[in-house]
Amino acid sequence: MNNKRWTNRPDGSNWGDFGPDDQLGRINLLTAEKVRQGIAEVYEGITFGLSMPLDYPKGVVLAQGRFPPQLTATERDGQPIFNLPLAARNPNHREIVSDDVATLTLQYSTHWDALSHVGYKFDVFGNGKPEHVYYNGFRANEDVVGPVNYAAADTPGAQSGPYGAFALDIARLAKKPIQGRAILIDIAHHFGTDRRLITGADVKTIIQADKILVKKGDIVAFRTGWTEYLMEAGEDSNIDSLNKIGGMLDGRDTELLDWITQSGIAAICADNYAVEALPSRDADASDSALPLHEHCLFKLGIPLGELWALGELAKWLRRANRSAFLLTAPPLYLPRAVGSPVNPVATV
Questions:
Q1: Same domain for 99 and 168?
Q2: How far apart are CA 115 and CA 25, in angstroms?
Q3: 40 membership: H or E segment, kind and range
Q4: Is it the case that residue 236 has pLDDT exceeding 80?
Q5: Whether residues 299 and 183 fall in one domain
Q6: Closest Cα partner for 208 from 258, 271, 251, 259?
Q7: pLDDT, mean over the chain
C-alpha cells in the first residue's frame, strides 16, 4: 500500500484496511446494522447505568497523575456563583443561581481510552529506524503533540503548543458515536473474584457455557467483580486489597489475542483497571509492558473502556438467561483529548 505514514505495518494489525487515513479502527464496524442488532436485544425497556460515581476510586491512586475531580464555584465580579441572589443586580428578581466548574482527570474513573492513548516505537518504513507512532502510523510530536518531545535524538526538550491529539482523539469516537450490540462475558460468575490470569481458553469456556453468540462488530464487556468490591469498600479500599481481586485478561496469551482478532469485535470494556493484568505476565522480559493495549489500541484500533460498573447488569442478564444488550456509550465530545469519562447505558 502506498501510504505516506507507513509502508511496513505491524504483524497482525489492520492498518490501512479501513483506508489510509482511518482514525476509527474497529469502530468502523459499528454500522447502522449493528445499531439495529443492538435495538433487537431490547425486550423489556429496562436501563442500567454502567458508570461509577466520577469521584471513585476515591483515595486510591491507580495511576500517577490521575486524581479525583475537583469541584469549585464559578465567579461573577469576584463573587462565587453558588446560591447567588440575582436581587443583588435587580431587586425585582427572586432567583438564586448556582454554577460550578470541575477539574477532571479524564481517565480517573469510568472512561474510554482513545486510540491515541498508547503508541509504540515501531519501524513503519522498514528502514531500521523505529519511530514513536500510534494506530495507522500517526506520529508522536506531529499528530499527537505534548509539551515535551521525548523522541528527540538529543535530550528531550520542551516544545511549543498547541498540545493534544490532533489525530485519533476521543472526539472521533464521540462524533461516531459508540452505540450497538454488546455482550457480557461474566468472568466473576464462572471463575470467582480471586485474582487470576484469564486466557483465551477461559473466555471460550464462558462463551460456550453461557451460549453466547459473538457477532462481528459487537462490543464486549468483561465483568471481574473488581468495581463491585471497590464500591463496597469505598474509602477503605487500598491497592494491596485491589491487587487480589478479579480475573484479569492475560495480554500475553496468544489464544486470547487471536480470539480478539478473529472475532471482529469493535470495542472492549471491563470493570477493572487497565482491562488487562497489570503488571503483565513476564513484563520485565518483554519489549511491551501493555501487550493487550498494543494489540487493541495500536494494532487493531479497538478502544478500551475501564472501570465500568457491570454488577447489576450482570445479575439481571443471569436471571434472564441472556448475555446481549444494547449499549449506548459515547465519550465526551472533547477535541484533542486521549481519553474521556463515559456514562454508559445498557438497555435490555
A1: no
A2: 8
A3: none
A4: no
A5: yes
A6: 259
A7: 95
